[in-house]
Input
Amino acid sequence: MPSVTYVSYDGKSTTLDVPLGTSVMQAAVLNGLDGIVAECGGSCMCATCHVYVREDQLAKLPEMELGEDAMLDGTASPRRPNSRLSCQLVMTPPMDGLVVDLPETQT
Amino acid sequence: MVDSAVPGTVVIVGAGHGGFQLAASLRQHGFDGRVVLIGDEPELPYQRPPLSKDYLDGKIGLDLLLMRPAAFFEQHRIELVSGVAATQIDRVAKTVILADGKRLGYDHLVLATGARNRVPPLPGIELDGVCYLRNLAETEALKQRLAACRHAVVVGAGFIGLEFAAIARGKGKPVHIVELVDRVMARVVCPDTSAHFAEAHRKAEVEFSFGARIERLGGDGGKVSHVVLADGRDLPADLVVISIGVVPNEGLAAAAGLAVENGVAVNGELLTADPNISAIGDCASFPSRHSLKNPVRLEAVQNAADHARCVADRLMGKPAPYAALPWFWSEQGAQRLQIAGLTTGFQQVVLRGNYEAGEYSAFCYAGDKLLGIESINKPADHAFARRLLGAGRGVTPEQAADESFDLRAAAMARS
Output
């Protein structure tokens, strides 16, 4: 099964199995991981599932839609070129091995 | 060293968004005492917004509805007491009494009791087929009814009624919405936005009766079969969804002698008159710096979760007045509504964007003061609105009306 590694703000790494079709946010919540809040439950409404994707892996991700791009301007931690909302990152085979850094705060 | 200000045992009554978040935030901040989370529903704490959206639609199951898996509560030493209601607070003994007779001592008690459905005093309200959409059990029942439904009547055109209507139409079910006032979501959005949403639902063949009063629900063999309006019309209905709002669960507090005022009365730090009892979320009546009129009581995930964070900070020795900006959202078919701020009491609305195309924002003002912004299929504006209003800034009505005005720059500027 594909996996994703989440690196918390204080540097702790957690690697989770993420089934195809499951979002990077959903896997974090299903496994009780701290650092991803997902207040709206994955509707791209709240910008509290913000992650920073490793630069060399950006091309493996689904393309950003307008709604996500817009809501990324509302994140609590600074938006960077590698910012994504993890509720929109639904696992596909090329995403296996993805590493995401969690921001200092989501709210 | 023991910090005597930090309570040893925190008991939370209510395991919805507010209660869950409080327990999680306490542990996140390193709280080392006991945390007991009491909920009267049997399930693990779950998220409510998807009930009227993806869950009712069958797009997600219970696993994705849960706030966190069972293991999370064990790992974080959150003692879950599920399926049992709290029935009494003994403030002198600092004890909560449960329906099964158990007694739980607390150093600090947090009431996160939420709200319950408003039930209209209509003849026939007890008939089989009359449904609600607030908790998981109600949603399960409604989901099953909907599958076999031939004619649905929705009572009340608020968020829940309209979200249900969109899902039901998506399944090809005829839907007729009966609303007492003259427009949809009248309590929360401006008339332009009401008109936009009513039109979107009409295009999906939802029928509306505005300014319509229901006389009674008619039945056949104990099952609802039609809805009789005061104007004499008779609407066929084998499913009736009651969505006319909620009332706060304040009985526990009132019986304990705490002040209630459309909710449990709390101060700017969400504390009741009893220094050992706080109230958060849908059940709390609190002063908001974002409201023209106070106190307010809000029904929203953001409000519940931010209240919880504020109280967790206070219990950990970092008190601060509650100041978070309220925001809300609704998804109705392809229509997305996002609201930042509290627009109650607005006198002027400035529309920005393309209203005709259904991609716009409504800036609501009282005088020159920007109260809030409704964004319809315009998430960028909503992100900017949250930054602007959250920082206590605004834009003038003239700037809002000027399409060449750079809203992004205004929002992203560091004040």
Remarks:
- The radius of gyration of chain B is 22 Å.
